[in-house]
Amino acid sequence: MTNLTQGQAAIRAAAPTVKLLIGGKFVESTTTEWREVINPATQEVLARVPFATVAEVDAAVAAGKEAFKTWRKTAIGTRARIFLKYQQLIRENMKELAAILTAEQGKTLADAEGDIFRGLEVVEHAAGIGNLQLGELANNVAGGVDTYTVLQPLGVCAGITPFNFPAMIPLWMFPMAIATGNTFLLKPSEQDPMVTMRLVELALEAGIPPGVLNVVHGGETVVNAICDHPDIKAVSFVGSTRVGTHVYNRATLAGKRAQCMMGAKNHAIVLPDANKEQTLNNLAGAAFGAAGQRCMALSVVIMVGEAQNWIPELVAKAKTLKISAGVEAGTDVGPLISCAARERVDSLIAQGASDGAKLELDGRNPAVAGYEKGNFVGPTVFSGVKPGMAVYDHEVFGPVLALMSAATLDEAIEMINANPNGNGTALFTQSGAAARRFQEDIDVGQVGINVPIPVPVPMFSFTGSRASKLGDLGPYGKQVVMFYTQTKTITERWFDDSTVSTGVNTTITLK
């Protein structure tokens, strides 16, 4: 710790340490490498998180491997009842969870509750595993022969989660993996692991047995250890394209299943016939909510025809949003996760202006009373944006909205399809014909019609596509049951004493 006063050093040394979970016990890491968990609105040190050793990763995997021997044979109804209890505990502790999340991540308390609730929906879905993990049966496919399938768990699975949804995305991962009979190793973001660990505590309280859920913290060394470990059968990842590509390549090379949800550049098209007030409200909320730190944030809007005249009104909407700490009443835009994130966003805004985009609203260096040390960037709007500009080519991951123009819907669709990413897109219109053409012709995995952030509910799956995703199966819904299970096909015939032998059969068919 350099450049700290004695008092600051003492405060940081006294910060609580985040524990590992190995074999049902919360344990102190033996590592010498630690990171501070910082409140992004105040720079207060909330905790210290360890970067686990490779030996600790090995111990966590070994605990999961041992627990799998019995957990895989646990009755499906028993597994389901654990998640019924778990969803109840999450509901009962919602306010506490949201307060922890806001303190370490920065989003508003209301948005923090939304983060937790969207994860809670997946927990509720996991409680229905008895109906989700069903095989198939074909009776009498040949003379006295039946064929059926069972969906069996894989073993130890692992998840690597990002800072921007420290409740929702862990809850995407371990409940479905565990409900299907696997054991799980979770590596939360080292930037905001505290709410994740509280959710883990509640999961154990709900009845998840020792070793079925394990947690390690860390950076590149731990990620690589997860990708390489021979006893880990599948890896789920949400985060940046750079890290996700590395995880996918390394994990699959090691023979694992992998699903990686990665970067995005989400576009919306606004047609002139759209409901103006509703559309402008939706655009502002989707672009600037969570300070733009969502993989499904709306970062590009293509205004078609006369809708380009709405830009001043959209800027006016953005100016009404309150910038402050997430704990303050009425806050719309909280801080970015770190000083480095703020500096990166500020730099991209400066680059956008020098690239020739028109800076309609500059959110840099906002005055936030009482939180002068916070990592704040206010809503920022560019118009006249084109491919090749920094604010278009990069995922800004901040409250920055790029406005583009097109003469027709077809031209706008071509612009979106030319972008390599395919996480989400939306169309605002009152024309059913336009909506039909858009959903048919757009090459993006998740489509909203008058819905700016089209993330599906858990009975469906998250279906980002192209450069936004590696792996065939999504992280929840029906697809994730297939991801976390192996289909085994059994073909059987039973003989009784009355069966007459027909002699040796050397053909390939069953008779």
Can you characterise this structure?
- By secondary structure, this protein is of the alpha/beta class.
- It has 2 domains: 249 residues, 3-Layer(aba) Sandwich (Aldehyde Dehydrogenase, Chain A, domain 1), CATH 3.40.605; 179 residues, Aldehyde Dehydrogenase, Chain A, domain 2 (3-Layer(aba) Sandwich), CATH 3.40.309.
- Helices cover 38% and strands 21% of the residues.
- The chain is built from 17 helices and 22 strands.
- A 7-stranded mixed β-sheet has the order 14-15-16-13-12-18-19, sandwiched between helices. It has a 6-stranded mixed β-sheet with strand order 9-8-7-10-11-21, sandwiched between helices. Strands 5-6-22 form a 3-stranded antiparallel β-sheet.
- Helix 5 runs parallel beside helix 7 and helix 9 packs parallel to helix 10.
- The longest helix is centred in the N-terminal third of the chain and has 18 residues.
- It starts with 5 loop residues before the first helix and ends in an 18-residue tail after the last strand.
